[in-house]
Write a structure and sequence with these properties.
- This protein has 165 residues and is α+β, with helices and mostly antiparallel strands.
- The chain has 2 domains: 1-42, no CATH class; 46-164, DD-peptidase/beta-lactamase superfamily (Beta-lactamase).
- Helices cover 30% and strands 17% of the residues.
- It is built from 6 helices and 5 strands.
- The chain has helices at 48-61, 91-95, 111-114, 118-123, 142-156, 160-164, and strands at residues 8-15, 18-29, 34-35, 80-82, 85-87.
- The strands form 2 sheets. The chain has a 3-stranded antiparallel sheet with strand order 1-2-3, with no helix packed on it. A two-stranded antiparallel sheet has the order 4-5.
- Helix 1 (48-61) crosses helix 5 (142-156).
- The radius of gyration is 19 Å and the shape is globular.
Length: 165
């Protein structure tokens, strides 16, 4: 925790239905000096990317989409630009972080602007300029998985949360 500058963690180790360790370490809130407990809840942040990727692969396995399909097939009217020209991005490029979408295309917290609507967030970048031509260069961007989340919703006809559950 010291070398990673991690203020707190909760650890649970279970094997064969037997609990070997269930303990909190450090702080859940440093400023308020609230200690981490075994029951402390944490944001899972980018861990949701694994669920999103799995859901996309499940939809592909079930024939609901193809990884080579363009995003615009599932989000009508969606496109980006590279060197001023319209570009189609594939689902596979989103999964592999090779869409060319800039990592800073939106600010960190857009909930005030777009509410809780992934559709509005994704539509807010439509037509914007890519950093790279799709399929070439790796660039980590949370937006890739926001777009995949909207594809999951549109294909499954369920909210992202409901589909993942």
């Amino acid at each position: 925790m010291k070398s990673g500058d991690i203020p707190g963690a909760s650890v649970l180790i279970v094997k064969d239905n037997k609990v070997f360790l269930n303990k909190g370490y450090g702080y859940a809130n440093v400023e308020k000096k609230i200690k981490a407990k075994p029951s402390t809840r944490y944001e899972i942040a980018s861990n949701t990317k694994a669920f999103t990727g799995y859901a996309i692969l499940e939809l592909a396995k079930n024939g609901k989409l193809s990884l080579n399909d363009h995003v615009s097939k599932y989000i009508p009217g969606f496109y980006m630009k590279y060197d001023g020209k319209k570009q189609d991005i594939t689902i596979k490029q989103l999964l592999g972080q090779k869409s060319g979408i800039p990592s800073d295309i939106t600010s960190e917290d857009q909930t005030e602007v777009y509410g809780d609507s992934i559709k509005n967030l994704v539509q807010s970048i439509r037509g914007k300029e890519l950093n790279h031509k799709p399929g070439g260069t790796f660039e980590y961007s949370n937006m890739n998985y926001d777009i995949l989340g909207l594809i999951i919703q549109n294909v499954s006809k369920e909210s992202y949360n409901t589909y993942i559950k």
